[in-house]
Structure formats: structure tokens, C-alpha cells
Amino acid sequence: LLYNGNVVADDNGEAVLELNTANAVGGVYEVRVATVTETLASGTFTLEAEAADTGRFDDVTVTVDPPSGPRGTNHLITVSGLPANETVTLDIRFEGDSVFSADVPADENGVIEFPIISEETDALGVYDIVVMANNEDIASATLTITEEGAATDGTPTQATVTITPDIGARGTIHQVSVEGLAQGAYIVEVVFDGEVVFSGEYFAGDEGRMAFRLQSEETDPEGDYTLIVRTPDGEAVAQGMFTVEAGELVTANLFISPQSAPLGSTHDVIVSNLPPESEVTLIIMLEGREVFRTTRMTDENGTASFTIFTELSDPVGVYDILILHDERQVAQGSINVQEAQEPILGDSGDSSDDTTTDDSNPTDTTDQQTTGEIQAGDRIEGELTDEQPAARYHYAGRAGETITITLTSDDFDAYLQLFDENGNLIAEDDDGATRLNSRINITLEADGVYEIVAASVPYVRSDGERYSVGAFTLTLSSSEGGMTDGDQTDMPIETSEFYDEVVAIGDTIEGQLVESAPQRVYAFNGEAGQTVVISISAPFDTYLSLLDNTGTELTFDDDSGSGLNSIIGPYTLPYTGTYLIVAESFGNRVSGSPEYGDFTLSINTAEQRSIGYGESVEGTFAVNLPFNVYRFSGEAGDVISFSLNSMTAGGVYIQIAAADT
Question: What are the CA-CA distances from residue 421 to residues 95, 352, 377, 394, 448 (Å)?
Fold first, then answer.
């Protein structure tokens, strides 16, 4: 049935209906006149198919890039020379039979770019790519599917795209990893139904990899989406696909403890709020690449527990934890794996005979000489040179003394090491003082003379074979005097070498990440016991860290906010003094693929309200404060119950913790 309408007869019993057949196809059409209950009359008319207006399509061309490749190859079909916004049919034929057909509109320039991936079930051979208008062929090209490893036309091997998960309801976060690229910037496009619905710029590091995340939105139509990676001049070099499903995003509760720990630690992961006795999968990813996967069954309460062990050989960094149920993502978290403080100088045994002859150690030891001594409160301005690429200072320390050593430089990526009297490495740091500066905060276990090594990252990583040079500043503070630790004088709010801007609790800051400054560091003063909430919102995937006044990370967050935004808190400040906030993109922190753009950062206090047994309270959720904190007192053995209802906030969640935690 192509048309159905009501027509009123005139006084002579005649009814006239005019139909526009401009867009109709040729053939025989039947017209029926009927009342609600019966057909009164019928007739037919014939439309002859008109030949295609070939003049409009004389300049149409089709190209396939690459024109050949094994199964699984990403091909980009480009049609050009069409009238602006013209819709044509793209028909793929094998041995004369149509195996795929789609109506695709051209853009305002008369160009269609249609990506397609050959599948494992596709037959080997030559396929015709035919463009049709008005049921007439107007242009064509060929695509050849070859055996794996067969020679092609010399087109370079393309990069590979991995999307995890590759299917999910609206709101799913998809991890994207692209490998096999040249270092540099790329344009990533997401295409749906022939139209680009998302475009962004990402960067591949020196390993030829880039990783980022995409989150589908509530307004996205369901169906298959194609992700295309292009060079800045428009050449497609990689392609992948993911599917957005109808239905609500199923979410589970995820608990990870500890969230941050050195190599060699154990992390407990508990997933709850899932169907009982069902299969759940845990995936661990680093820089967008899957490094571990395991599957468990939930218990009768819908809970599954996992234990993660990190080994000393594992890379440090932030690992993403993905939880899948029925192959769909239901929860996501992360763990921060830090360096283990392992000795790297070899045997730490008896050092009573440390005499070394020139024959036994032919290596140049110029840079091994001690530069000088340092005392608590000292601020040393020094320089690393070709002749001395590492500076060494002795410090007379006491058992139980807490010292903070800071190394800063505008000329090189700083690295600090601390050795005991026996030459054992007891602490080291790379970027603990924000940016590319280093800081060690440690409580000494014994009286003795300790050695501090101020060097560059290349020097330490290459065992002295490579190094950087330039000016540096070295400071040392002690709990026993000199730049006392634990209050505002440890890192004065005016000492801007550690941060970009001073802010205050209650401020909202508009900032920007750019290529020359992929992270922004803010300093603020807080009071012990004060509960704060720090939030960031941006059009890219954000990452927040909170550091203490020694540069030690206190807590961090990736995606606790809406979408891919971050929120820290409610967090109770442990001391009165200066704190640092590091705002950056997830890619800059984790994968080496930074994202840039404007962001909004807010710092607020989370008021702790009191509630007693039998009481009810009302509250409000806000974008920058999406939770409320309540404190109550109870006795051991009390059985308590809570209820939380919201008519507008969607899914709500209650977390209970001891007040001193």
C-alpha cells in the first residue's frame, strides 16, 4: 500500500485525486475506491521507467582504498562528482549477484565516503562496487579479497583498531585502541548511516599507539557505527566498528581496594547488583590494550569477587577495570599501579671492602663523585653538565626523622634517588612534584649518612648511557627543623614553581589544556577535617588527582562524574596546609595520547549534616556536588536500615563508612 487517503465526492458523485509520480518507479499501479466495509471500484495505470539523466552523472567516479586485501581489511569506498546531496544506491556484487546494497546521500560537495570491512565469511575474488541512480548503473569500481598474506597493489599495511566492548546500550563507554600508526596527530571520525556524527583530534606516541574512550549518548540512534582514523590530509588509515543497542544501560556496583598501590600488591575487586548465578567478566586494560581477562559466576546474591596481583615486572600506570555481563559493560573503575621501591644497585651485602681498581671497573666514574653536603632547610641551585650528568649530595639523617627532598628544573625531566649508607636504594621519584619535577617524602629508619642523587630521567633509565643537562633546584626539609613538614610552610602558597594558579575552596575556574601545557596544577589551602568535593567537566575524557604538600598523591578519579568527567570526594583533608589539584585528560595521564580543550573546575565543601535514628531529611543533587554527606552515631550491635528515594535523580546509591575513614 503506497497511498491511503479520504476523498469527498461532489454533488455529481465525482471524486478527483491528483498524484505526483515524480519520485515513483516504473511499473503497473492499481487504484482501489472503497468504503469502510467494501471495495466499490478499481483500475490500473502504468508508469514507464525513465532513463537516467546521464548528463547529471557524467563526472561520477568511484575509488576503493585499498583496492585489495585479505579478509578483515578496512576498505574506504569514495564516490565523487555527484550532484550536491544526491541520494544514490551503492550495490556490491559478486559473480553478478548483489551481496550488499544501501541508499547513501552525498554531501554538499557531491562526495560519499563509505567504509566497509570484509568479513571472515566473504568469498575470495573480485567484487563489483556499483553506483546506481534511478535503477541505472552510473559508475563502478572493483574490490578484491585475497588470501591472507597474498600480494596486493603495494598499499601499506593499515593500522588496527580494537574497541572494547564493541556493543552496548546507550551510555556505554567504549575503550578504543589504535596500533600501527606513525607518530603524530590523527582525525577520528564516527560514522552512522553514511554521516559523520563525531570528529576529534587524537595523538599517537612514538610507539605508534593511541588510546581514547568514546561514550554513546541517550540521543544516539541504535545501530552499527564505523570509526575511521584519518591522517590530517584526509587519508583513512584504520577502521573499526561498534554497535549501540536499544534499552537501558545495566549498571553494577564496583568496589576496588586499594585503588592505588606499588607493584607487588594485591587488589580486591567486588562486583555486586547483578543477576544471581550469572557469568561476569573482568577485563584489565592498560593504555587501551587488554592485558588480562577472567570470568566468574556471581553467587546467589548477584556478587562476584576477584583478586588482582601485580608483579614487579608489570608496567606502572593507571589500569582500567572493565566489568562485562552478557558481553555488555556494566561497571568501570581503575587502579593506579606505582613503582616498587626495589634496590637497583645490585648486591647490598657487606660493603666493608669497597676498594675498586681501574682494571676491575674501567667505566668513567666522573659523575659518581659527591657534589657536596646538604642540610635541612637548604636550597641548592645547581647544574647538570656533560662532565657531571648526576649531582650527588650527602645528608646526615636520624632515625625517625621525616624528610622531604624536591628536585625541580625547567631544562630537563627530573629524577630523584635516595640511598642509605650501604648503597641500597630506599626511595626514588620521577614526577611526584607535578609537571616533570620530583619529590621524595620518607621517614628514615636509622641514623647515618644518606646519599641524594639528582639526575635526569634518561640518565637513570639508561644506567648513565644517556642523559640531559641543565639548571636545577634541590631543596630538603625535615621534621626536626628547617622548612617544617605538615603545615603551610612546607610548600608556601607563593611558591609558584609547583603549580600554575592559586585557588580557594568555593571557586569555579575556567581553564584550558593545550599541547604546550597538557595538565594544569592548582594550589589551595585547606583545614584538617574539612570535607571537599573537586569536580571537572569538559568535552574530553578528564582525570583529576589530589596531592598533599609533599607532592604525594592522596586520591584520584577518572569517571565518577557524568559521562567521562571526574569528581574527587567527599574527601576529608588530613591536615591544615597546602594541597595541589592536577587537572588533565585521561589520555595524558594514562596512554600518552593527550586531549586538549576548555574545562571547568570547581572546589566545594561537602557539609556533613547530622541525622539520627528515626529521622528523615531532604537534600538536592547538583552537577558539581552530586551527593550529600550525613553523619550519625550508633552502637555496636545496632541493626539499621536506610531508604533513599528520588523522583528526578535516576539511579541513586548509598555508601556507609566509619566517620574517621
Answer: 80, 11, 22, 10, 6
Of the pLDDT bands very low, low, confident and very high (cuts 50, 70, 90), residue 348 is very low
Domain 253-338 has CATH 2.60.40.1930: yes
Instruction: Indicate yes or no: pTM above 0.90.
Output: no
The span from the CA of 210 to the CA of 524, in Å, is 33
3-state SS string for 2-63: CCCCCCCCCCCCCCCCCCCCCCCCCEEEEEEEECCCCEEEEEEEEECCCCCCHHHHCCCEEE
- Which residue did the predictor score with more confidence, 489 or 422? 422
The grid cell for 87 is 541520494
According to the model, what pLDDT value does residue 523 have? 87
Has domain 370-478 been given CATH number 2.60.120.380?
yes
For residue 460, the surrounding DSSP H or E stretch is helix 457-461
Q: How many whole angstroms separate alpha carbon 461 and alpha carbon 442?
A: 22
Angstrom CA distances, 255 to 273, 298, 305, 317, 323, stand at 12, 15, 10, 19, 11
pLDDT digits (tens, 9 = 90+) for 1-56: 667 777 778 888 888 877 777 666 677 888 888 876 788 888 888 877 655 455 78
- The set of residues, in sequence order, having a beta carbon less than 8 Å from that of 465 and lying 6+ positions away, is none
Q: Which CATH number fits domain 486-661: 3.40.1190.10, 3.20.20.100, 2.60.120.380, 3.30.460.10?
A: 2.60.120.380
- Check if 370-478 and 486-661 are the same fold: yes
**SS3 track for 267-330:** EEEEEECCCCCCEEEEEEEECCEEEEEEEEECCCCCCEEEEEECCCCCCCEEEEEEEEECCEEE
Distance CA 2, CA 176 (A): 44
Q: What is the CA radius of gyration of the chain?
A: 33
Q: What is the dihedral of CA 320, 510, 595, 332, to 10 degrees?
A: 20
Q: Give me the CATH topology for the region 160-245.
A: Immunoglobulin-like (2.60.40)
Position 426 pLDDT exceeds 80: yes
Quick check: helix, strand or coil at residue 350? Answer: coil
Residue among 440, 450, 444 at smallest CA distance from 400: 444
Q: Could you report how far apart the first and last alpha carbons of the chain are, in Å?
A: 69
The residue that leads in pLDDT, 156 or 223, is 223
Cβ–Cβ under 8 Å, residues 581 and 546: yes
pLDDT at 467 over 50: yes
Distance between CA 615 and CA 634 in Å, rounded?
A: 14
The mean-pLDDT minimum among 274-278, 339-343, 541-545, 591-595 falls in 339-343
Report the candidate in 566, 561, 581, 573 with the shortest Cα–Cα distance to residue 621. Answer: 561
Instruction: Tally Cβ neighbours within 10 Å of residue 660.
Output: 5
Q: How far is CA 589 from the centre of its chain?
A: 9
- What pLDDT shows up at residue 152? 41
List the helix and strand counts (H, then E) for the chain.
2, 46
3-state secondary structure string, 212-241? EEEECCCCCCCEEEEEEEECCCCCEEEEEE
Tell me which of 538 and 15 has the higher pLDDT.
538
The domain spans of the chain are: 160-245, 253-338, 370-478, 486-661
For residue 29, which of 53, 47, 5, 52 has the smallest C-alpha distance?
47
pLDDT tens per residue across span 134-167 = 888 898 988 888 776 443 443 334 678 888 888 8
